[in-house]
Specification:
Layout: E1 3-10, E2 30-31, E3 36-44, E4 47-54, H1 61-71, E5 76-85, H2 104-107, H3 112-131, E6 134-145, E7 151-152, E8 162-170, E9 175-181, E10 194-195, H4 199-207, E11 213-218, E12 224-225, H5 235-254, E13 258-260, E14 265-275, H6 282-302, H7 306-328, E15 334-344, E16 347-351, E17 355-356, H8 358-365, E18 370-373, E19 382-383, H9 386-390, H10 394-398, H11 405-420
Parallel strand pairs: 2-10, 4-5, 9-11, 16-18, 17-19
Antiparallel strand pairs: 1-3, 1-6, 3-4, 6-8, 6-13, 7-12, 8-9, 14-15, 15-16
Helix pairs in contact: 1-3, 4-5, 6-7, 8-11
Length: 424
């Protein structure tokens, strides 16, 4: 019989912390809702499997390595440690190591004190989950679809509306809810100066005390957001959209497609090399950036509606990051990253260390038993499709991989699923 332990710990940074996610400087002035680290620990036939979820914009492999060395004495294997983030843009900067290739303007200079505090708290969270281990009575799995929350970020077409839900119930009656949904959780905009988990908070508020812990995992959200669906960028809108997503979660689990024990578990880690992007000359990158500045000014004069204005702003942000890459990035051949695939019963979970396009991941998601976990075990910005490069989208300008490498990544994942996970 499988056992389940879980725990969560407050990781809200101090007021005055610089907030991450946008090019402009944002100094937090208060806390709307606390940020958390959550741990789910499963013991299946003596093998431990650990999922850590944090209300942060992202974490790098250095953070994960620190966590692993702190808790490996519990018997958790490196392949069995999964660490993901919600990708809130209202959490702290400074999480990424000074060796990271991410730019400091958007993600901040490395904050050793904050990261050390987070590592200590996550270790305590994992150990608390280990000490809390109890027999699992049953696992319930369901899925549903929701419209009107996420849409494609550049053209107003419906995004991936699938909601995957896993409900874990222990013999002592305690319940944990894990849900997966693909969407930038950014209802709040850069003018928000309150610390918040953003969209996931709306879901937590909707469910109240119905569960002992609720864990959100993001999916293939690289090209999916609330840009065209949100009615405002307020906390009231967080509540409204959170309620709609909460209803979809309830619909997914009220008539589960599976209810029973965990009877199969497997995990495997893969090292993947993707070709690094071409780097523009500083002159070319600067020309593109000046063109984007001109378009922003023209859009302001034209008084474009917020959703259209955001498209122009994102183009500017992309050329800004492209210019930084041209000025500071050394040419390299490959981007080295890790992909984990783990299987629980009939469901395969595929980790992506960044923001893969939903359009790109469709061949993986065509099988209902495949679930993408984005922003997991690292963060390397966007994995866009070839169309994004051809359209000069912001995500392509910000990407570290060469045109076509997103498609190659999907091909590699499909190959590994077929080779190692086609049968249980």
């Amino acid at each position: 019989m499988a056992k389940l332990g879980f725990s969560q710990v407050d990781i809200t940074p101090p007021i005055g912390t610089t907030l991450s996610g946008y090019e402009c400087e944002r100094i937090s002035e208060g806390v709307h809702d606390e940020l958390f680290a959550r741990t789910l620990l499963i013991d299946f036939e003596g093998e431990l499997f650990c999922i850590v979820q944090m209300d942060l914009i992202g974490i790098d492999e250095h953070f994960i390595e620190k966590i692993f060395h702190r808790v490996k004495d519990l018997g958790i294997k490196k392949d069995n440690l999964i660490a993901c983030t919600t990708h809130t843009h209202s959490g702290p900067k400074g999480i990424f190591d000074e060796t990271s290739i991410l730019d400091e303007e958007s993600f901040g200079f490395y904050n050793y004190e904050l990261v050390s505090d987070y590592v200590n708290k996550v270790e305590k969270c994992i150990r608390a989950a280990f000490d809390d281990m109890m027999p699992l009575e049953r696992m319930e799995v369901g899925s549903s679809y929701v419209q009107g929350i996420g849409s494609e970020r550049h053209v107003n077409t419906e995004g991936d509306g699938r909601v995957f839900v896993m409900k874990l119930i222990r013999e002592d009656g305690k319940k944990v809810l894990l849900y997966n949904f693909s969407c930038h959780p950014t209802i709040l905009h850069h003018d928000n100066l309150l610390i918040s988990s953003d969209l996931p908070y709306g879901v937590l508020k909707y469910f109240g005390n119905s569960y002992d812990m609720i864990m959100f995992t993001n999916g293939s959200a690289g090209d999916i957001s609330t840009r065209f669906t949100r009615q405002s960028t307020t906390f009231e809108e967080v509540d409204r959209i959170g309620k709609e997503l909460g209803k979809a979660i309830e619909n997914a689990i009220k008539d589960p497609i599976y209810s029973g024990s965990i009877n199969y578990f497997k995990t495997k880690r893969y090292r993947v090399s993707l070709k690094f992007r071409d780097i523009h000359s500083v002159e070319e990158a600067n020309r593109r950036h000046l063109d984007a500045i001109k378009k922003v000014e023209e859009a302001k004069i034209a008084n474009l509606p917020p959703s259209e204005m955001r498209l122009v702003e994102s183009l500017f942000e992309g050329t800004s990051r492209d210019l930084k890459i041209a000025k500071t990035m050394k040419r390299r051949e490959y981007l080295e990253l890790e992909i984990n695939i783990f299987r629980i019963n009939d469901w395969n979970f595929i980790t992506i260390p960044g923001e893969i396009f939903s359009n790109l991941s469709k061949p993986i998601r065509e099988a209902d038993n495949n679930i993408i976990l984005g922003y997991t075990n690292g963060y390397y910005l966007y994995f866009p499709d070839e169309k994004a490069w051809e359209k000069n989208y912001y995500e392509a300008s910000s990407s570290y991989v060469k045109k076509g490498e997103g498609e190659r990544l999907v091909s590699i994942i499909l190959s590994k699923l077929n080779e190692d996970f086609s049968n249980n």
